[in-house]
Amino acid sequence: MADSRAFLQLDPRIQRYLWAEGWGGLRDVQEQAIPLVLSADQDVIVAASTASGKTEAAFLPALTHILAQPDEGLIVYISPLKALINDQFWRLERLCEGLEIPVWPWHGDITATSKRKFVQKPTGVLLITPESLEATLCNRGTAIAALFKRTAFFVIDELHAFIGTERGKQVQSLMHRIDVAVGRTIPRIGLSATLGDMSLAARFLRPDSPVALVDAASTGSQLLILVKGFEEPPAGRDGGRSDSDGEQAPDAIAAHLFKVLRGSNNLIFPNSRREVERYTHLLNTLCEKARVPKEFWPHHGSLSKEIRYETEAALKQREHAATAVCTSTLELGIDIGAVRSVVQIGTPPSVASLRQRLGRSGRREGEPAILRGYVIEDALDDKSDLATQLRLDTVQTAAVISLLLENWFEPPAVRGMHYSTLVQQLLSSIAQYGGMQAAHAFRLLCTSPGPFDRVSRQGFIELLRVLGEQEILSQDHSGLLLAGGVGDKIVNHYSFYATFATDEEFRIVSQGKPLGTLPVSQMMTPGQRILFGGRTWLIDEIDEQHKTIHVSPAKGGAPPLFNGSGARVHTRVRQRMRELYLGMGPLPFLDYTAQRFLDEGREAFKTRTLEDLLLLDQGSYAILLTWLGDSANEAIACFLTSRGFQASIGRLGVEILRAGCSLEQIKSTLSEIALSPLPAVDELLEKASNLERQKWDGLLSLHLLKHTYASSNLDIDEAIEWLKSIEPERLRSVVFSPPEQI
Predict the structure, then answer these.
(1) Is the same domain home to 247 and 309?
(2) pTM to 2 decimal places
(3) Mean pLDDT, the chain, as a whole number?
């Protein structure tokens, strides 16, 4: 390390620590980041693969700086997870002990005594969640300037988990409010293993000034991928039935997992909490039958803290093998030790998510990263619907993996207006300052470089008016904004500090009979069809107040491709799916069955001449084959809905209920949309229901709710660009498939 210029820039005490720990040298990401962070006069994003040393790339130079600058003695580390804070505490305390720098974990499980000690002497490293930082600003008011005056850096871990979310907007606001309180710009360091467009990430970290970028190359470890296909026979085809809700494929997958994973640590990612429970049960039943110790542990957000901690502890200990069956709760950087392989059951939520998950594997020197994928398709018969014929799950999984291998992943979403979080930050700022003039609040939060600079003065005034009408806010005789009677109760409730709402599912009810619950991730309208419990239902009414969807059995027609849940798909993924359908050769990461699924999907695509089709006649409804992402497709659906059609997004494009209208009417309307001026957002979403997505959306006026929904969920520009690209020649020359052929 003596030849390393970056190493020689570190404090001698840190150098001695690294020698004592047996470091052979700094990693590439550290060599690049150390001089940038040491200058302490710029923002830096450090993007590199998991276990590449990003944390040290930030903290080694940051600690060197505060050792050399006694007046700047605090590093504020912001983490999305309490468990990650606990991990970093043990990791940093060992380093900082010899430097005589205190490390302070701060979240809901930390004692008040420890927090008081930090407040009395706010130096060292503060490891804190956004919610705890929010509470600090609310409750310590004018003391904030003194508390954070010595802050040298903000370090934001798992940056990708914040970008484009309400929680990310909260973090932006908190850092900005502290900057304003201390009267200077505190450098920000963002750490992430998964970033798409680095310029968008930089804009998130600091919207109004340049950001230094460290995009370290991959370590080059070997990557092994195998996707296995499993076919689910139609009910009644043979006499054997499974205990898994009448399905045989999950049993076969569990048996294969038991065979290949036993004796090692792994992560299994099904696509829902229900599937986590299913596979944990199946795998541990196999352990019991084999009379071997339990090796499979569940981990998802609905489980108690104790159960999740039990799973994390099982993964960390070295005496016995342990595999977690989990949702995205274990995607982030909690230290769970070495993981031999990552398993994805079903279609990955996104390329970025799969990349993050795969980063858990292959962390030991010389070990490959291993991804095992499993896809389930129904057997083909004369009743198979279009989705089954096209083998959509297999093709989308293959598309995601092929993009992963090309090192592409979704860019951050940064265009949302986030009115819900603005409500929270407005109430929080009023609590911090003991009241604010409206003009001061607008300058603080909505004027650049404020975090809500997309909100206009007119929109802010409307928000104040609406909050005043609901007694969320009040004004005294001098015009000072204060929390109203209702707002005071909100701010003083422990749940206020979190920007995200707890998961809410809609109850599905038919003729007064509850059918179950369904998570809904897109807007819905009466007349739309949904798939639930293996049947197709028609939405009769949406009761948003009671989170209930009233349905009746749908008569005739193929089932919809939308089932109410799942991550939003990017245009690049859909376009890659189309490329795979048009392709000829095998994919090296598919096993024989999965490759057969792909070949069957290609044959169906060719037979139905889908390469040339834009509007697919399905009898009772039509599908507009856009090959766009969900945000653009939903915008097109809104355009059609605003003109009297019943339209919604599906996995192939936009589904349009015929309801007596001809295909020529649909074509004509699409042409009119492409040529017409853009409608106002209020008009576009006039018939939309279920727009409340974020925690405080229910406090917004309908006008503001529509605008905040559109800004985060609709890509109107891409939708219009596509519509104009097909008008008029391609749409007029479209070939239709009779419904009996599908």
Answers:
(1) yes
(2) 0.86
(3) 87
